[in-house]
Design brief:
Layout: E1 14-21, E2 25-32, H1 44-66, H2 70-88, H3 95-98, H4 110-129, H5 137-148, H6 183-198, H7 206-220, H8 227-241, H9 253-258, H10 260-273, H11 276-312, H12 319-329, E3 334-335, H13 337-344, H14 348-360, E4 365-366, E5 376-377, H15 379-383
Antiparallel strand pairs: 1-2, 3-5, 4-5
Helix pairs in contact: 1-11, 2-4, 4-5, 4-8, 6-7, 7-8, 7-11, 10-11, 13-14
């Protein structure tokens, strides 16, 4: 495949606009330039990063094609992405909590838990919806609706483009860190954003295109709430739509969370200093780091699965049910005996005996300390996804 080299040194991010409110009050909002045009990379390091990111992303995707029962493993990847993306916005839900039913969550943390669960549902729904609808304003509105339904942002127009001014940081619009464009500009900017994605005549490498689109989406900030999470979720959808991924196995939010300050600063630098290429390099570095981590995680999962498979061969006639349960545990690694009974279609006693067998083999560990209503965790597997 031919690799095209593109430059962005002449990019002008947009203009600041003084907005008058009433007779004497005013604030400054940022009106971004359109992006539906060619972009050319100026720095050779960008091209080197692009090549490395593309190669490693391909290797990561190969795992998702080769690992048996991949759909079971994918759900933990989606949950991990949901935790990291939501943490960037201030939630404090951990991967262990996401795996628990709501009634097991501390009441003070349930709002955070619900937001992360909504992200998981929105991701799963939108990935499936890609079979019927391309990445578009319509798709992001429908995804946004699922993200904010019945959680703290439920009053902030789920699924609807904002019809009022919003801002980021600060106690008021006049002390805000960043004020996005006026709502009257949003429809036109989103139309330009969507056309850029589907404009095949530009011959821009897809990873660079996605990087530019993420910056632009966050700059437009088209919703009253949930813009960051939707913007990061879109990265996965775009990679799947263009065939770079077959499954949502790249959780780049982990990188954005680890380097949160740099994430925000490089986005700001585009708006303040027109440094689009600096943001593109940061994004590509994120793809490189995250792809490498994802590959290592798959290798660790494969090794762990082989160890578990070897252990359960000692269970004699119970092996088929044990293997069936093991596969389920890779998507839901915290279970109760009742869960196991329903999943396997066996009696409570048979389920209890099998859970006891896997506990004896050190595949499951009891995590509640209760004598009743106990929960069992595939601890070593969950540890692979824990921060």
């Amino acid at each position: 495949m031919m690799c095209y080299i593109y430059s962005m040194k002449d990019f002008t991010a947009g203009t600041n606009q003084k907005i008058l409110v009433g007779m004497d009050a005013e604030y400054t909002s940022f009106l971004p330039s359109g992006i539906n045009r060619p972009f050319i990379a100026n720095d050779q390091s960008t091209i080197t990063l692009l090549e490395e990111a593309t190669r490693l992303l391909g290797e990561l995707n190969a795992y998702s094609r080769l690992v048996p029962d991949i759909d079971y493993f994918i759900q933990m990847h989606v949950k991990s992405e949901a935790v990291s993306s939501s943490r960037i916005e201030g939630t404090r839900t951990e991967i262990d909590e996401v795996l628990l039913p709501e009634d097991e969550i501390d009441p003070e943390r349930r709002d955070d838990w619900r937001e992360v669960r909504n992200y998981i549902n929105a991701m799963n729904w939108s990935v499936e919806e890609l079979k019927r609808l391309p990445v578009s304003v319509r798709l992001i509105k429908d995804t946004h609706s699922r993200l904010l339904t019945s959680v703290r942002g439920k009053h902030k127009l789920p699924g609807e483009i904002r019809t009022s001014q919003n801002w980021i940081g600060g106690s008021s619009i006049r002390t805000a860190h960043y004020v996005p464009p006026q709502h009257t500009e949003v429809a036109g900017l989103l139309s330009d954003w969507e056309k850029f994605w589907h404009n095949s005549s530009l011959n821009i490498p897809i990873l660079i295109k996605i990087a530019i689109m993420h910056y632009q989406f966050e700059t437009i900030h088209p919703f009253l709430d949930g813009n960051g999470r939707i913007g990061r979720l879109l990265i996965t959808l775009q990679l799947i739509e263009r065939g770079f991924l077959t499954k949502p196995v790249l959780y780049i939010s982990d990188y954005f969370e680890e380097y949160r300050q740099s994430y925000y600063e490089t986005l700001d630098e585009v708006r303040q200093k027109n440094n689009l290429e600096g943001w593109v390099r940061f994004f590509l570095e994120g793809v490189v780091v995250t792809s490498n981590k994802g590959k290592q995680k798959f290798e660790n999962i494969i090794t762990l699965r082989e160890q578990y498979d070897n252990k359960i061969t000692t269970l004699g006639r119970k092996v088929p049910k044990a293997r069936q349960l093991l596969i389920y545990l890779f998507s839901q690694p915290i279970v109760s005996v009742n869960n196991v009974s329903k999943v396997l279609g066996v009696s409570f006693k048979a389920a209890s005996d099998l859970v006891s067998d896997l506990t004896g083999l050190d595949i499951l560990q009891e995590k509640t300390g209760y004598s009743r209503n106990r929960l069992f965790e595939m601890k070593d597997y969950v540890a692979l996804f824990r921060k």
